[in-house]
Amino acid sequence: MALLSNTAVLLGKELRTEFRSRELLTTTVVFILTIVILFSFTFQPSGSESLRFGPGLLWLAILFAASLMLQPGFLREQTNDTLSALRLSVSDPFAIFLAKLIANTVFLLLTEMLLLPIFAVLFNVHILGVFPQLVLVFFLGSVGVAIPGTAFSAISAQARMRELLLPLLLLPLLTPVLIASTEATAALLDVQPSLQGKWLGFLAGFDVVFLTALWLFGEYLLEE
Amino acid sequence: MKNFDSIFAAYVLGWAVFFGFYLSIGKRASSLRTEIEQLKNSLSRGK
Amino acid sequence: MAKRAILGLVTLGLVVAAAFASFYVVPMERTMGPIQRIFYFHAASAWAGMTAFFVCFFGNLLYVWRRQPKWDWLGISAAEVGLAFTTIVLITGPIWAHPVWGIWWTWDWRLTSTFVMWLLYVSYLLLRTLIAEPDRRALLSAFFGIFAFLDVPLVYFSIRWWRTQHPQPVVMGGPGSGLEPTMRKVFFFSVLAMHALMVLLLSERYRLEKLRGEVDDLRREAEAQ
């Protein structure tokens, strides 16, 4: 199918561009750690408090980092004026979004997987027993962050004050993702770990709704 | 009436929002109308 | 001109009647006393605000489909009007809560999700100020408006599920939860009155936007000369 092959080619380009500057990954990890540490000073780090606040802090930090990290996505095309070339190269403009979306999700996931062991140490939680389930939660949550994030980076690239605009547009909208991901993560890191089907289903629903909206309306964001 | 000040405050503030909004629309509309007149005049003079 | 005057008078009549009813027709609420009457103003505004945001969504969809400026005008007008009503919900909520429970804000799920919705539409307005070119502005903000409206039920449910999972003192007595018949009738009448007010404000704001379009056209014509 043309969409898939177009997406695959573009995805390769996206990943190659990002990996050429591996600093993005390490910078994001350090940034999130900084936020987590700063946040930790706002409460008494006893065992039960860590468990109560930890997952929420982690996800909040991920959200902040994403609203900064997702900025270059379309800005790069804007500054290099490559957007029209991109659009000519594909039959379905959704392939452009899909490629950037997948690349952004991969980056978010990589960042999170690097962070999890550190987080486990800092907050004294056991992640090994529930690792596959955690990956599922982080995958669904990251997709939830990446879909509006990628869409809005296309918007902010065409507006003023874009550094502030993307977080402003993105963060209120991601409230459901923050809540669902935090609850699911907290349940898995609890003394009695459990997989919260309700929140996972909710995240999946969120992803489907906005992916569909992006598919229906995304091409209008790329118009000249 | 018990808690009269709160009820009073709620209604006054509430209606203030609506009136403020309505008045700001009116003000903006009249300034736009004057601008339209000016533009129409300069256009007819130009022609 | 006559139509506007009639709409204005009808709205005024409905609003005054609703206020009268909420004070004199409805029986006194047992636990909270007179302060509960704010509920009719507060909850009816919430409903009117939601309807306004739905109209905004409708305008956004139609703009993306048809690209006629009038749908953009409808979108921005409805968003501002919706924001006015939502602001009132957020103001009257704490004013109601404070004498009854001694606290201004409670992160009660209704108020919290209203707050998030308020932020989303403030962002919509801010976005529009940051894009200069009118067609681009209309298209990009329509897209954001669509996403924002789709998010509203998701925000509502996630906050509600989260709050019921961690039981907090339920502060705002829910509308319709144990509303005795007279109260229910007055409530729906208040909702009607608020919707009339919403339509009035929406039409006034729309006319303003239409005027702005006229100015833009004239300016373009002047520059072309």
Written description of the protein model:
- The complex is a heterotrimer of chains A (224), B (47) and C (225).
- By secondary structure, chain A is mainly α.
- Chain A has helices spanning 2-20, 23-40, 47-69, 72-80, 83-89, 94-123, 131-156, 162-173, 175-189, 197-217.
- The longest helix of chain A is centred in the middle third of the chain and has 30 residues, at 94-123.
- The N and C termini of chain B lie far apart (68 Å).
- The longest helix of chain C has 44 residues, at 181-224.
- The radius of gyration of chain C is 20 Å and the shape is globular.
- Chain C starts with a helix and ends with a helix.
- The model of chain C has no long low-confidence stretch (mean pLDDT 87).
- The chains are: A mainly alpha (224), B mainly alpha (47), C mainly alpha (225).
- Chains in contact: A-C, B-C.
- At the B-C interface, helix 1 of B face helix 2, helix 3 and helix 6 of C.
| Ends distance of chain B | 68 Å
Percent helix of chain C: over 70%
Shape of chain B: rod-shaped
Task: Tell me the radius of gyration of chain C.
Answer: 20 Å
β content of chain C, as a range? under 5%
Largest interface: B-C, 28 and 36 residues
Order of helix and strand elements from N to C terminus of chain B: H
Percent strand of chain B equals under 5%
Number of helices of chain C: 6
Q: Specify the helix fraction band of chain B.
A: over 70%
The description of the largest β-sheet of chain C is: none
Uncertain spans of chain C, ≥5 residues at pLDDT below 50? none
Number of strands of chain C: 0
Content-based structural category of chain B: mainly alpha
Summarize this structure briefly.
The complex is a heterotrimer of chains A (224), B (47) and C (225). With 224 residues, chain A is an all-alpha fold. Chain A contains 10 helices and no strands.
Topology:
The complex is a heterotrimer of chains A (about 220), B (about 45) and C (about 220).
Chain A: H1 2-20, H2 23-40, H3 47-69, H4 72-80, H5 83-89, H6 94-123, H7 131-156, H8 162-173, H9 175-189, H10 197-217
Helix pairs in contact in A: 1-6, 2-3, 2-6, 3-6, 3-8, 3-9, 4-7, 6-7, 7-8, 7-9, 7-10, 9-10
Chain B: H1 4-46
Chain C: H1 2-25, H2 38-66, H3 69-101, H4 109-129, H5 134-165, H6 181-224
Helix pairs in contact in C: 1-6, 2-3, 2-5, 2-6, 3-4, 3-6, 4-5
